Amino acid sequence: MRFLLIWSLCACVLSLDTVDAAPPASPQSFAGTGEPPNSGSPHPDATMPKLRSQAKLGTPFGVEVVEDRFWITTIDDHCVYRGLLGGDSIERVAGNGMVGYSGDGGPALKATFNWPHEVRCDDAGNLFIADTRNHVIRRIDGVTGIVITVAGDGTAGFAGEDSSGNEVRFNQPHSVALDGEGGLLVADTANHRIRRIDLSTMAVTTVAGNGKKELPPDGSPAQGCSLFGPRSLAVDKSSIWIAMREGNSVWRIDRRAGTIHRVAGTGKKGYSGDRGDPLQATFSGPKGLAIDRRGRLLVADTENNAVRRIDLSKQTIETVMGGNAAPHSCELKRPHGINVIDGTVVLVADSENHRLMTDAR
């Protein structure tokens, strides 16, 4: 009888543990069918919301999340899409489905873009878009939906320091980030510089980079240092975070001291270092960055088909999606844009699988 009583108590405890234990999180499809849209013809003028699960998203690149809303840029049809995180639909808000550079001064839905690589939304609902192959930064008014070019003249080059508008030239700007101080940071990738647009005067200045295609000395002043393919930016109060594609590494500009520091990656191309020191790890063409609520960096390690997470408090790095974690997560194909929902849930553009995926781990 005593044995039966003990056995019953143990079974009860095991049962309670089983009930209370949450199942391990797993990646889920957020949007996209996995197929690209038909290309070569413009989208209808009228855009209607469609189910996220039924939307054909052709090579999604940029991902923005602000409160209860999200935005996606797509490369195959050169458009921007929007939806509510709590809803199940998505709608086109910019681009007519054709490649080009037209439509300034009119509705964004009738405008053309050329590889809109990234999108950011300010507090007023205005969108800023890195229109990469048009070599310009464009803005969509949050109230009227009218699109304009903020900076750049549509020609690849480097010009316009302390100038504005079409006196400025970029060369394949890939990333934009609001700096929280009235400015928009631009990863001027092929110029190997980070530039800043003052959103009150529209003047453009260089924050880091001198045009030389090489990694900077660790700890050097950011102003005037070299950069090697700055591809993605993330910003918090103390730092500007930079993923360098050609430099296969992640860096940080200390906003107070004005110095630049290597955070992860040796600079050599590879896929190594998980569960170890991020400084000893290798990457292959990282193209996306985000920061979660706990201050951990999320890196779209694009050419390794992986999302990696850097915990700077523990000085460790791990693969959390795709790559060598694919057997217990999901397979990714050249992920680009990445962001965070509710501070912890990863939202990544699984670009060449034509979908977005989430993972709560």
UniProtKB/TrEMBL annotation:
Q: Which GO terms describe its molecular function?
A: protein serine/threonine kinase activity
Renumbered to this chain, region (Disordered) spans 25-50
A Pfam family name for this chain? NHL
Q: Does the keyword Lipid biosynthesis apply?
A: no
Q: What is its EC number?
A: 2.7.11.1
Mind telling me which InterPro entries this protein's record contains?
Answer: 6-blade_b-propeller_TolB-like, NHL_repeat
Does the keyword section mention Secreted?
A: no
According to the UniProt entry, which residue ranges have a biased composition of type Polar residues? 27-41
Superkingdom to which the source organism belongs? Bacteria
Keywords assigned by UniProt? Kinase, Repeat, Signal, Transferase
Q: Where is the secretion signal located?
A: 1-21
PANTHER family (alphabetical): NHL REPEAT-CONTAINING PROTEIN 2
Q: What is this protein called?
A: Serine/threonine-protein kinase PknD
As recorded in Swiss-Prot or TrEMBL, the protein's gene is named pknD_6
